[in-house]
Design brief:
Oligomer: single chain
Number of helices: 9
Shape: globular
Mean pLDDT: 94
Low-confidence stretches: none
Strand content: 5-15%
Structural class: alpha/beta
Bound molecules: adenosine monophosphate
Order of helices and strands: EHEHHHEHEHEEHHEH
């Protein structure tokens, strides 16, 4: 199976779609945001610096994220493809990634862009909660995505949490950063003929159906 890079504005459903792809194709889901949130809990200067950047909707340094990513995709479970959620985030990261793939003898795979209106994505942020353990994502503003028991993960029973950067002010910051730094990646990859667009404003089942149509059963 080819690797998949998901590109979309924050809260457009990258994490949710990546989890469905993981289930369907049995490929690792690599969320750089989840990896960083874990590191942010470490009681160290690096942990505090990452925490501060995430809480303010800022990117961590390209050097750090590239190092973290390289270590992850070198692991054996990534040999037959993986799903990238949150990386690359700018053209410099995409260029470094290209070089990394060449060195490791891996293919780029396909790029799926989840298109979504800013206001629809912002309304999803308001109700988004997630599981700190198994990373399942829920939304209290959407009947289909509510947990069965309020505040508890259906899958593993852990207490659900709200991300520190899921508030209106930080969301606008993250959205603007996406438009300025990440959306140019679509052009970058379109030149390589590997981009597919999917409407991310649909519910998760419909979005997933569209993605599977592209990737094949
Ligand atoms: P996400 O869970 O993908 O929304 O990421 C949450 C936050 O982690 C982002 O707002 C950034 O602060 C940081 N982050 C995640 N991925 C990257 C990346 N590839 N480059 C820089 N910062 C990142």
């Amino acid at each position: 199976m080819k690797s998949v890079i998901l590109i979309a504005a924050p809260a457009a459903g990258k994490g949710t779609e990546a989890a469905l792809l993981k289930q369907q194709y049995n490929m690792p889901h690599i969320s750089t945001g989840d990896m960083l949130r874990e590191k942010a809990q470490e009681d160290s200067e690096l942990g505090r610096d990452i925490n501060n950047k995430i809480s303010n909707g800022m990117f961590v340094s390209d050097e750090l994220i590239i190092e973290i990513l390289k270590q992850r995709i070198e692991q054996e479970d990534c040999n037959n493809g993986y799903i990238l959620d949150g990386f690359p985030r700018n053209v410099a990261q995409a260029q470094a990634y290209q070089q990394m793939l060449e060195e490791l003898g891996k293919d780029l795979g396909v790029v799926i862009v989840l298109d979504i209106d800013k206001n629809v994505a912002a309304s999803r942020v308001a109700g988004r909660i997630s599981c700190p353990d198994c990373k399942e994502v829920y939304n209290t503003n959407n009947e289909e995505m509510k947990p069965k028991t309020e505040g508890i993960c259906d899958k593993c029973g852990a207490e659900l949490v709200k991300r520190a950067d899921d508030n209106e002010e930080t969301y606008m910051e993250r959205y603007n950063t996406y438009m300025e730094k990440t959306s140019p990646l679509i052009d970058f990859y379109e030149k390589q003929g590997v981009v597919y667009h999917v409407d991310g404003s649909n519910d998760r089942e419909e979005t997933h159906k569209q993605v599977v149509k592209i990737l094949g059963e």
